[in-house]
Amino acid sequence: MSIQVFGQPVSRGVAIGRAVLIASSRVDVAHYFIDPSQVDREVDRLRHARDEVAAELVALKSEVPEEAHAELVALLDVHLMLLHDELLADATKQWIVERHYNAEWAMSAQLEVIARQFDEMEDDYLRERKADLEQVVERLLKALARQAAPGQAQGASAARDFAGEDPLILVASDIAPADMLQFKRSVFTGFVTDVGGRTSHTAIVARSMDIPAVVGAREASRIVRQDDWIIIDGDTGLVIVNPSPIVLEEYRFRQRQIELERAKLNRLRHTPSVTLDGQAVELLANIELPSDAAAAIQAGAVGVGLFRSEFLFMNRDGELPDEAEQFEAYKAVVQAMGGLPVTIRTVDVGADKPLDRMSAHELRHEHSLNPALGLRAIRWSLAEPEMFGQQLRAILRASAFGKVRLLVPMVAHLSEARQIRQALDRARAQLDALGQPYSAVELGAMVEVPAAALMMPTLIDHFDFVSIGTNDLIQYTLAIDRADESVAHLYDPWHPAVLQLIERTIACATEVGKPVSVCGEMAGDPAFTELLLAMGLRSFSMHPAQIASIKQRLLRADVRVLRSQVGAVLAADDPQEACQKLLRARPH
Ligand code: PEP
Ligand code: MG
């Protein structure tokens, strides 16, 4: 039976494929296709792992002291029984033989299937055996990790050409932003998660991958079953489970149309970004990893407007990258951009980007009272002067290889501006003492909290440029957690208060002749292009994949149409409607 689930559309396009359900705790399990010639070897790995775990359990049983409770022995017997159960052993093998999944992936795929069956059991005792099954699978995964993986050994991993295999769509309850990052070069052609808002960092990373994604689809991971065929409509947020042949054909047709449109858009790559009335506009790229610089160049970006450096810091079990490692990463981006400016944002951890792996649920309930208002972004950096100094020195050193700009997230106080300058002076002095070269680096503030926008006339004196982080600016202006799907309907970029703060920031910076850009998701949303241009914005930073459609929009834009009407749009009850009406009425 076909079922529809609705969520938040995150990344445009249509994906059609088989569902791969992944438990949030298992997103770090390797997922790759093995070559058909490696099937026997992979099945052998599985067999060895099972023999190893069986030996482990038998040894444990023999070590149970006499006086220990008989329950412990019984429990180990249950584990042994589960280990040899056909449902686990044979079915896991089938994933390898028929679908060419690597053993770890096959194991976790089958765990999801059986776990679902346990969840549906009426008998409490049997239902609780799910935890035992998870423990057995955990042991098996550890045993597999101790063996060499043939696919990985040959570097096949996600890079293996999976043509011929069914396309796959990842379905999970939630995925942390850093985990999402590891799927960047993966086998998945779409994503669905139960939790998250449109501008949660998980959604942002999904968008940067330029594949259809839907977040906040609440029940999706419960409704969808392993291997179901699903369709993701990344424009509307619709997920269709087990579609009928007619629906499937309709979406395949749309998929082909989207591909044709993309091919057309890509031809704009080398067209200069100039509006109809001759205004030159700078289109920059947002990146998360040094390797993303290639996509920025490919998309025709004239620089990096936002390098979210925090992704270098996440999921490292407390081992933060030192100055040398950071320097290499920043230098790699600067060199890849070949002389184009690179804006490196200092580390922005906290809120929905914890340093260590943590689910959205844990984040919300266990980590901190209100992480979005806590020690995040520049607050965290100033509280960790040693780490901040290392990052500043690494960024300064990278400036010896090209044009680097330094951007600080979440500035709200003038005292922070002073402390940042002092830290920068200290970092320069340290490099001077060591004879390390560096060039002039401009300092910019992200305008992400209403306080920064409101005090712009004063704040701007302390910085060389500003960049408006609309994702957080909306969150903090409207008091809406951007990662919380339950209030996603209230997260409104068209809210007059948000637009007024943006307009004010652009006007202030322009008045004193300092560069201003928007690097939040609004910059990559064509619905806002004309309005932002009319407010005076000439620099937009977005995911490389969005550059072509924004360029197409601005090539057809005439800034004069809205310029005198910005005040009226901002004062309207419904700015979105007012803006669209004015654009529809423009003379052709
Ligand atoms: C923003 O807040 O708009 C922004 C660009 O930063 P991030 O999305 O990384 O918080
Ligand atoms: Mg932000």
Describe this structure in words.
The chain is an alpha/beta fold. It is 47% helix and 13% strand. It contains 26 helices and 16 strands. The chain has an eight-stranded mixed β-sheet. It has an eight-stranded parallel β-sheet with strand order 15-14-13-12-11-10-9-16. Helix 13 links the parallel strand 10 and strand 11 (342-345). Helix 4 runs antiparallel to helix 6 (129-145) and helix 13 packs parallel to helix 16. The relative contact order is 0.10. Mean pLDDT is 90; it is low at 153-161. Magnesium ion binds at residues 409, 448, 469, 471-472.
Question: What is this entry, summarized?
Answer:
With 588 residues, the protein is of the alpha/beta class. The chain contains 26 helices and 16 strands.
Strand content is 5-15%
Largest pleated sheet? 8 strands, mixed
Radius of gyration over alpha carbons?
Answer: 26 Å
Q: Span from first to last CA?
A: 49 Å
Q: What is the overall pLDDT average?
A: 90
Write down the overall geometry.
globular
- How many individual β-strands? 16
In order across it, which strands form the biggest sheet? 1-8-7-3-4-5-6-2
Task: Identify the bound ligands.
Answer: phosphoenolpyruvate, magnesium ion
- Helical segment count: 26
Helix content: 40-55%
